[in-house]
Amino acid sequence: MSVYEYEVKTIRGEKKTLAEYAGQVLLIVNTATKCGFAPQFRSLQQLHDKYGPQGFAVLGFPCSQFANQEMEDNQAIEQACELNFGVSFPLFARIDVKGPGAHPLFNYLSDNARGVLGSKSVKWNFTKFLVNREGHVVKRFAPNETPDKIVSDLERLLAEPKPAQV
C-alpha cells in the first residue's frame, strides 16, 4: 500500500486520489492557520518552490482537532493561507488526523512513521510526514521541527532514482 491509493478532497471539494503525485517526494502536513506554528507555512512554501522542479510537493491538510485552531470553512482556510502566508502548494479539505474519525490517509501515515517514544497518534498541528517517490512514508517530523530541518532528508530522497513505475 502507498499514499497514492487514498482518496482525498481538495480544499475546493473535488474528490481525487493522491495518484497524481506518483513518482514525487511528498511532505504531508496537518496544518492550522491559527496555530503558533502557522509561520511554518512560509517555510513550507519555500521548500515547495525550491524543490518542486525536482519532483517535490508539499500537501497541506487543515485540521482543527488541536485547540480548535482552524477555521470551519475551507474557502476561508484557503484565503487565509494565501493572503497571510503566500501559500500556493496544494491544500485539501479540513479533516481529522487522529481518533475514530481520522482520515484513512493519516491512519496510514501514523501507522508507518511513529512519533516520539513510538507513539502512533498525531499530537499537534504541523506534524510532517516525508514520503518517498514510491509513496511510502520514510520519516515523521514533530511540529516543532521546522521545515529547514527536513532539507537533508528531502535532498537524499530527491537524489534517489525515480522508480520505473509507481
From TrEMBL:
Q: Which UniProt keywords apply?
A: Oxidoreductase, Peroxidase
- PROSITE patterns per record: GLUTATHIONE_PEROXID_1, GLUTATHIONE_PEROXID_3
Q: Does the keyword Oxidoreductase apply?
A: yes
The protein, known as: Glutathione peroxidase
Looking at the UniProt entry, the stretches that span the membrane are: none
Q: Give the record's family classification.
A: Belongs to the glutathione peroxidase family.
In terms of CDD domains, this protein maps to: GSH_Peroxidase (cd00340)
Q: Which residues form the signal peptide?
A: none
Is Oxidoreductase set as a keyword in this record? yes
Matching Pfam families: GSHPx
Q: Name one GO molecular function term.
A: peroxidase activity
